[in-house]
Amino acid sequence: MADIPERELRTMNHLMYMEYYTGGNAGIFMKMKRLLHSYQSPYQRIDIFEHPDFGMVFSLDGITMMTEVDEFMYHEMLVHVPLFMHPDPKKVLIIGGGDGGSLREVLRHPSVEEAILCEIDPYVIDAARKYLPTSVKFDDPRAKIVNENGAEYIKQFNDYFDAIIIDSTDPTAGEGGHLFTKEFYQNCYKALREDGVFSAETEDPFYDKGWVAIAYNRISSVFPITKLYMGFMTTYPSGMWSYTYASKKYHPVDDYDPERAKPFEGELKYYNPEVHRASFALPNFVKEIIGEK
Amino acid sequence: MADIPERELRTMNHLMYMEYYTGGNAGIFMKMKRLLHSYQSPYQRIDIFEHPDFGMVFSLDGITMMTEVDEFMYHEMLVHVPLFMHPDPKKVLIIGGGDGGSLREVLRHPSVEEAILCEIDPYVIDAARKYLPTSVKFDDPRAKIVNENGAEYIKQFNDYFDAIIIDSTDPTAGEGGHLFTKEFYQNCYKALREDGVFSAETEDPFYDKGWVAIAYNRISSVFPITKLYMGFMTTYPSGMWSYTYASKKYHPVDDYDPERAKPFEGELKYYNPEVHRASFALPNFVKEIIGEK
Amino acid sequence: MADIPERELRTMNHLMYMEYYTGGNAGIFMKMKRLLHSYQSPYQRIDIFEHPDFGMVFSLDGITMMTEVDEFMYHEMLVHVPLFMHPDPKKVLIIGGGDGGSLREVLRHPSVEEAILCEIDPYVIDAARKYLPTSVKFDDPRAKIVNENGAEYIKQFNDYFDAIIIDSTDPTAGEGGHLFTKEFYQNCYKALREDGVFSAETEDPFYDKGWVAIAYNRISSVFPITKLYMGFMTTYPSGMWSYTYASKKYHPVDDYDPERAKPFEGELKYYNPEVHRASFALPNFVKEIIGEK
Amino acid sequence: MADIPERELRTMNHLMYMEYYTGGNAGIFMKMKRLLHSYQSPYQRIDIFEHPDFGMVFSLDGITMMTEVDEFMYHEMLVHVPLFMHPDPKKVLIIGGGDGGSLREVLRHPSVEEAILCEIDPYVIDAARKYLPTSVKFDDPRAKIVNENGAEYIKQFNDYFDAIIIDSTDPTAGEGGHLFTKEFYQNCYKALREDGVFSAETEDPFYDKGWVAIAYNRISSVFPITKLYMGFMTTYPSGMWSYTYASKKYHPVDDYDPERAKPFEGELKYYNPEVHRASFALPNFVKEIIGEK
């Protein structure tokens, strides 16, 4: 059947994607238009779907990593909050992030000279390259893609990076757990320069409040300045996502200079200086989860 | 990603197939391993899935046409009940049946010299050839595949076929309705020789009892001998499937000669002479649906 | 809110019943109108739903026991096949069957003087009495309801019953397993008179073929005459249900006298003499499962 | 069955709640423990479920109105943002809000002397009273419950209320649409005193961005000061909820006095002064939806 003329697939009721959230008693369902790609890598099951409203949906072991229409919320908040805190980020390491969305955001910063994407699973990279628009910067000359275990890879660096961004899967899925240990955060500290900045996705405080607390407290035990911040992420569990910012030097609100974001006006879909500051205002129940006050 | 080594995909919770039965208040769900093929033909949406227990699952517009593990129940009952009633079936027409299962069963009969498979949708044929083991006889020299509307195609024949088998989709789906009209049955009558035999799938008497009655009564108004018969079909709605046998000459129980099935012993998985006779014993509520007594 | 005027509840999309079949990779879903009753008894979770098409739906531990519209298929086949084999059944024991459907069918036989319903769970009896129309004969003077473990209760009887009917839940659910042991079948044999008849529901040969084989072979090792028979059961897994008939004396086809069923004409919705005989005609793959030829 | 001892119901896989979000291609599912109450009122279907993690779940026409564990996010943001803007709110009107959560939050403010809850459907009030802990203040002497159409009820008031809070259902569900018209907002304006404050839930900007824009722009055409603000709402569609604040006099950030919230410290679970200010920082794509720059 070499030359099938393409027709728009009708979305029907029969192809239902169901993601069970932590605890197993709730989740999201999506009526899919098609399943474009499925592959069992040595690390995980990789799937790429097309959804009539969400566009491409990328899933690892049945957990949604991103959808085309709302990934910007997550990637902008994970990347720009730390990067705008640094006066001149040149060397950036992204651990995880195989879909490429974080890399794309990092490379918006013209100061960046070297952006290493350390994604353990080469099959994620291949799938992203083929199906996901987020992979747009994989071949940028400043980008370098490394397929190694981030927890091991980081060990070789000392006082090298201006920014490290942890764009991991869930601590309980695949190889995600390695990226939630105190030892790993210590190695990130060591790999950062003295004015380096750090961010990590640290799960949602509704279904996974235990992990929010663990990740925040471990990072906080390593870095002198550690702050949880939050953003909407509409197709992730609960829609309420937490990130943790850390630095040896810069306080993410007190030291924030909104002028740096000026040249990005009109380019970003989520992040702006007011959102930057607002994201550190935590609801009382979230403060309680991380033991703040 | 040219040379991916194949690994067995893990079936997870996320890929759920849901078929709503007539009425929309119940249905079957299947956790799929993968979706191998999706295509929107001019007639319908064609999907081929792999299920961890059922093997290949073939679906049109979200309605299950067959699964690899139980299609034999349906195809054997649809084909062998009429074919064993004929002393020497040479020319056989199958209308619908694009998966090839009915053709495979027809060609088990050594007397058959010409088996025409008239499937309206060439994309079903292509998909079956590529993915469905039922297509095993598409290239048999006695087989001829024609992509035409069966209701039109039949009109050109007079006194030609020894057997006609209607292996249609639902009357309410795609082009299935054309194959449930009185005019169509009259054309079948005309195309059959004087000792010709006929069978049609006529839906299930639980979710679709209206169609069982309509199809049976229309066929009965055309053929002197018309009998409803039944068989299990485990992944079809209700698991209880009806077929209608018709003939100008042979009564399906009184004229049945079990000796004809002897050479098939050990080859068939569902049909045997006792099952042939038993399939015409109808539960009281089914008799009532078709107005028998 | 003492005096709410009753309005017909609109069935919407939100109340979905999902029964996973053995293996966990497929099942049935039903859009429910309401959930009338839920109770956690010492043995199991008991639920009674109302479905817009199926009427009352009775479920134990999430496994459908019966729906109002098709329970007759199961209860008639389980009860009348053995009872019409006995010339004069007076004393009948039903083990399980707390919904009352088997009892109702047993009491259609005017010869019956004593029908004991031994249902382990009194909360099933209470729920059935309140919600299920199948419980219509609970207060019949010939009926006696006993809430005991059937596997223990049977032990006290010797040469007493004319018929024993095992209307159990799945061997893997709740207390069902006790009713699938060889010792239990031996006690049934002992409790039956020399011309006693026996039937048991023995699961479906599609999702649960292992249990069909085990149950059939264990019964067969105890009774001189043992035959598997089958019937449609549209809301049970696969729609294809197996029962096992056993007797010390009567062969269910050779000794069958269709005259006995004459007075029931017009009363039963599934069973008739042709269906009785037909139900013993097994598809080849079912014969293979039970090791018959 | 008068005296059933209560046992904890086991949550199984069979009782699945599915809410389809706007567009019908995605939604949330919840495994429920039980359905406590279902009633078809003249306005809508009312259901109250118990979920193993979320506690009571209240649903109208299959759309989740609240769950016990996260309703505080919504009710605190809807109520306290406007109420802390007013120096001395005495008379407050809540339209909708039949679960009682908004009333509970309003009555935390000691200045409030009269809080009218205008809920069109008395059966919602009855169900809330019986099953929902949010109804805790229904019998407070300062509370007055009125069962009328809010869009009509508001018309009689002139220069009366210090705060009006619109806690409606979706504009497309039940009677929700009446509460999204320009005429209605004009009547709210008229009913407010010259320093009155107003808030309305205005849907989510992911699945329902059209309604966010419509509601915001209509309110904005009536009030001199109108600001969209946002908060997490973990079991609502997308988890990202919008509210619209309006006032004739007070700007919600410039005129905000955080001292007023001091006495509430330790009492609220979501709202605090930083969250108040942060909630008005809108992501770029939300600004675009409402036509802001």
UniProtKB/TrEMBL annotation, chains A, B, C, D:
Biological processes annotated in GO: spermidine biosynthetic process
Name of a matching Pfam family: Spermine_synth
Record-linked SUPFAM superfamilies: S-adenosyl-L-methionine-dependent methyltransferases
Enzymatic reactions: S-adenosyl 3-(methylsulfanyl)propylamine + putrescine = S-methyl-5'-thioadenosine + spermidine + H(+)
GN (gene name): speE
InterPro entries: PABS, PABS_CS, SAM-dependent_MTases_sf, Spermi_synthase, Spermidine_synt_N, Spermidine_synt_N_sf
Superkingdom classification of source: Bacteria
Keyword terms of this UniProt record: Polyamine biosynthesis, Spermidine biosynthesis, Transferase
Purpose of the protein: Catalyzes the irreversible transfer of a propylamine group from the amino donor S-adenosylmethioninamine (decarboxy-AdoMet) to putrescine (1,4-diaminobutane) to yield spermidine.
Protein name per Swiss-Prot or TrEMBL: Polyamine aminopropyltransferase
PABS domain location: 14-248
Record-listed spermidine binding positions: H75, D99, D167, S168, T169, D170
Top EC class of this enzyme: transferase
GO cellular component, one term: cytosol
Keyword Transferase part of the UniProt annotation: yes
Oligomer and partners: Homodimer or homotetramer.
List of residues binding S-methyl-5'-thioadenosine: Q44, E119, N149, G150
Pathway, per record: Amine and polyamine biosynthesis; spermidine biosynthesis; spermidine from putrescine: step 1/1
Molecular function GO terms recorded: spermidine synthase activity
Family membership: Belongs to the spermidine/spermine synthase family.
Keyword Transferase recorded: yes
CDD domains per UniProt: AdoMet_MTases
EC number: 2.5.1.16
Entries under NCBIfam families matching the protein: MFS_SpdSyn, PRK00811.1, speE
